[in-house]
Amino acid sequence: MEFKVGSSRLVLKQGDIVKEETEAIVNAANETLLGGGGVDGAIHRVGGPQILEECKKIGGCRTGNAVITSGGKLRAKYVIHTVGPVFRGGGRGEPELLASCYRRSLEVASVQGIKSLAFPSISTGAYGYPIELASRIALKTVADYLKGHPEIQEARFVLFSSKDLEVFKSAIKDAGLE
Ligand code: AR6
């Protein structure tokens, strides 16, 4: 599924993000940047030790922020590591922090001259954010950014399961994309 947002493309697909050939892939990391399970585990496993070395030098990342490393052995040249909020009911700033993850990742990409990037569904695994809520925030935040930033030619959401892809497709209308 593909949409035009301004002059950019917004793509929704099912897949394993470590296989994406976009210039950058986004990691759903934690504040230590020292690795973990889920997307984070897969990226470090496939990308190799160079990514972890660079993460150690950076020294950590606050929730809602994003930092960049090389992509190691991944197809993607860069990994943008962002830290989503742990979902604790939604009244502790989680929506704003989740939106910030997507926005900061895109800002880091723009600064680096990256033209294409792939996002996982941040916070909706180990961090427990209900995907029905998270998908709307994700789509709206990315679409809003693309409208003002044609330098990002393509942003993709790479959803791990067909069920997650369906949830994202359903959220398209809420995000004002259809
Ligand atoms: N490609 C695409 N999506 C994936 C992949 C993959 N290879 N693997 C999992 N997902 P999670 P979080 C989906 O838990 O909730 C880590 O331990 C998964 O199905 O990876 O932000 C970190 O170190 C889910 O929909 O990230 C942190 O401690 C989504 O990606 C913590 O987990 C996010 O799930 C971060 O938790």
Summary keywords:
178 residues; 5 helices; globular; binds ligand AR6; 7-stranded mixed β-sheet; 39% helix; single chain; Leucine Aminopeptidase, subunit E, domain 1; alpha/beta
Which CATH class applies here?
Alpha Beta
Shape: globular
Query: And the CATH topology?
Result: Leucine Aminopeptidase, subunit E, domain 1
- Overall CATH architecture: 3-Layer(aba) Sandwich
Helix content bin:
25-40%
Count of individual helical segments: 5
Strand content: 15-25%
Which residues form runs of ≥5 with pLDDT under 50?
none
Number of strands: 7
Descriptive overview:
The chain is an alpha/beta fold and 178 residues long. The chain has a single domain, classed as Leucine Aminopeptidase, subunit E, domain 1 (3-Layer(aba) Sandwich), CATH 3.40.220.10. The model has no long low-confidence stretch (mean pLDDT 97). A 7-stranded mixed β-sheet has the order 1-2-7-6-3-5-4, with helices on both faces. Helices cover 39% and strands 21% of the residues. The protein is globular and about 40 Å long. It is built from 5 helices and 7 strands, in the order βββααββαβαβα. Helix 4 (131-148) links the parallel strand 6 and strand 7 (154-159).
